[in-house]
Amino acid sequence: GQQVMQIPQYQHVQEGEDFTTYCNSSTTLSNIQWYKQRPGGHPVFLIQLVKSGEVKKQKRLTFQFGEAKKNSSLHITATQTTDVGTYFCAGPNRGSTLGRLYFGRGTQLTVWP
Amino acid sequence: DAGVTQSPTHLIKTRGQQVTLRCSPKSGHDTVSWYQQALGQGPQFIFQYYEEEERQRGNFPDRFSGHQFPNYSSELNVNALLLGDSALYLCASSFRGQNQPQHFGDGTRLSIL
Fold it and tell me: Which of A32, A41, B61, B62 has the smallest count of CB within 10 Å of its CB?
């Protein structure tokens, strides 16, 4: 079956350092979505990338979708304590329009002041 | 504009019992998906309901069943509970189940003793 893998599983950084998490799918994705889940909370949608090679930025966050639409990355510049949480990538299979998402295991980010 | 609401927030059951979880989608959404999130894992797709029918199903046994009502709200039923069913159950809504961002509720924390 389809698998979505994320590395690293955990990342501890000092405030102000950069952070990157990587996502790889065993199959081609229709699109890639990123979610953030704060401790004790629920996943909250951050962004969706659709096109091969697409790059999008949200303030200090940069998202990239690979050329083969099988991998993606999220980079945070100059982390802040508010960035704490688990970041998940997720995507539906290529050709699927039914919206089932395959989630990675997530990268848990800890930021200490 | 109400978001996705789930009830109850917490539930404690014993092995062999049955449980029903409820979800009301975000206003304007007509598709409900259910996910199971074990501790330290990403959400795992259980099934999706659209137009009162189960449209997609993940790798979950028949003990997991659901229903969608004409007002788009949904229920998740789990029979013959096992210890391994302990998890956070998340409901997510979208419009027509297409490859759009999922809006998640706060979830129901189910503990099996």
Answer: B62
